[in-house]
Amino acid sequence: MMDNFTPGPFAEELAAAGVPDHLHAWLGRYGIGALVVKMGIRFLEMSPERTVATMPVAGNTQVAGILHGGAHVVLAETLGSFAASMHAGESRHAVGIEVSAAHHRSIAAGMVTGTCTAIHLGGTLATHEIVMTDDQAGAFRPPESRT
């Protein structure tokens, strides 16, 4: 049995990933997942309404030297899953049922930031929008929509 005072086996992993202290008791027995660690994802904010994380381009590229499209989706899925899990609460388990992505342009270096914003937080279903931005150009939007 885990108490709120004894660090779980993943305490260092949670701290390194930027998970806020108040979530350590809950996530300490599970960690953040091997893929999240491998991708270098680091959380900046975590709540059901808004979850924000960064991911480096380096180490997550495709053969053409740009960020792999699947890496974008891993970051998005991670954000949505954590936000939905926080909404569900510690006694429930949330799983994704759908993910879709549109890639409007590429990035070859730096950091990508994903911002997950709740659109609907219901009793059994949560829907989030995740927008990716980078250090240089801001949001990943089609060129004609940039201002």
Automatic annotation (TrEMBL):
Any single Gene Ontology cellular-component annotation: cytosol
- Asked if the record carries the keyword Hydrolase, the reply is yes
Q: Which Pfam families match?
A: 4HBT
Q: Do you know which InterPro entries this protein is assigned to?
A: HotDog_dom_sf (IPR029069), PAAI_dom (IPR003736), Thioestr_dom (IPR006683)
A GO molecular function assigned to this protein is:
1,4-dihydroxy-2-naphthoyl-CoA thioesterase activity
Q: Which residue intervals define the domain Thioesterase in the entry?
A: 65-136
The protein's UniProt keywords, in alphabetical order, are: Hydrolase
**UniProt family annotation:** Belongs to the thioesterase PaaI family.
What name is this protein filed under? Thioesterase superfamily protein
Source organism of this protein record: Arthrobacter nitrophenolicus
